[in-house]
Design brief:
The complex is a heterodimer. By secondary structure, chain A is mainly α. Chain A has nine helices and no strands. The longest helix of chain A has about 35 residues. The relative contact order of chain A is 0.15. The mean pLDDT of chain A is about 90. By secondary structure, chain B is α+β, with helices and mostly antiparallel strands. Chain B contains four helices and five strands. In chain B, strands 1-2-3-5-4 form a five-stranded mixed β-barrel. The longest helix of chain B is centred in the first third of the chain and has 27 residues. Chain B is elongated. The C terminus of chain B is likely disordered. Classes of the chains: A mainly alpha, B alpha+beta. Chains A and B meet through helix 3 and helix 6 of A and helix 1, strand 5 and helix 4 of B.
Chain lengths: ~260, ~150
Amino acid sequence: MFLVPDPVVRFFHRMASPPHFYAFSERLMPWLVVIFLLLTVTGLYGGLYLAPPDYQQGDSYRIIYIHVPAAWMSLFIYVVMAIAGAIGLIWRIKLAEVVMISSASVGASFTFIALVTGSLWGKPMWGTWWVWDARLTSELILLFLYLGVIGLYGAIDDKRTASKAVAILALVGVVNIPIIHYSVEWWNTLHQGPTVAKVGKPSIHLSMLTPLLLMALAFKVYYAIALILQARVELLQRERNSQWVKVKATEEGGL
Amino acid sequence: MKTARRQRLILIGLMVLGAGIATAFALKSFNENLMYFFPPTDVVEGKAPKDALFRLGGMVIKGSVERPDNGMMVRFKLTDFNKEVAVEYTGILPDLFREGQGIVAHGKLNPQGVFVAEEVLAKHDENYMPPEVKASLKKQITPAQGQNP
């Protein structure tokens, strides 16, 4: 391309080839699992044990270490999904379509976790499980967008056609992402404003912030793991008539 | 870049842009409906609904909380640092309810201009810190506030 160094371009070209991705992801997996476990253990130990209680919420605030990383991931995965959808539409790269659809269920799960933990946190702190304020409502719409993506993909038999339809839905849904992020600033909401993702210093003590960022990283690696596992299955299904899958099947003695 | 690809890229760009602009207009026109609560200033200026339920949000003024008959009924004042509204509520308050705390109350105005709440929710802030840090912050802030009441 223009400013991207050659080796990087070559890496992406190679990765876009399904057999190469399949082999590469197999070698990558153990490393990802080890990194994920290390990050999760240190993050949870730091968050649940080392971090001090909050001046206002006491120990109840510790649900932040699941709620906030899950909510960040719900937005992050949606953006990845939409970008992969756009790449699939423009360059017709099969692997981009696979990444898009494999992200949807992971993203939906993180959105669901964010909503449920938020609700569990809301009851003791705010005094209610749920309110229809802008932040909560837009996050719920995000869950429906994910479910729409999954449903639409399943409803169309030809997977290349399905990917195009899903990519357009995902791209239109991107407007919801800034709405979720800025909802607490644009409108009056019961949900409080941003703590970390804002201009200036985060409004959280460093001893509490460090485990939060570790957990955020852990969730990112978990996403990579879940994405790769899903994408490998999806690839095999789509490429079941191609030579490399047949060779792979006989090598592993499956058929 | 090949022409077909460039066309698709432009088409997708326009689609996202179009969806964004349409949503922005829709949100702009529904802006007031998307507000979860009215601030006290709107209520004092008569912008809040007269005979309907609505939500009122603000900070509980320090020293304004009182229980006139020593029962479940609480009376306090809410402010947005501009105007004040008196609120009455009968029921159990959330744990985070205290003076100087942001809350959202659901109810309606009575003819005397007092907001009779049916439900009170606590709105906690975005700050997280250990109790010791809060205590030392208070010590630093108190003299400064004394100079500028």
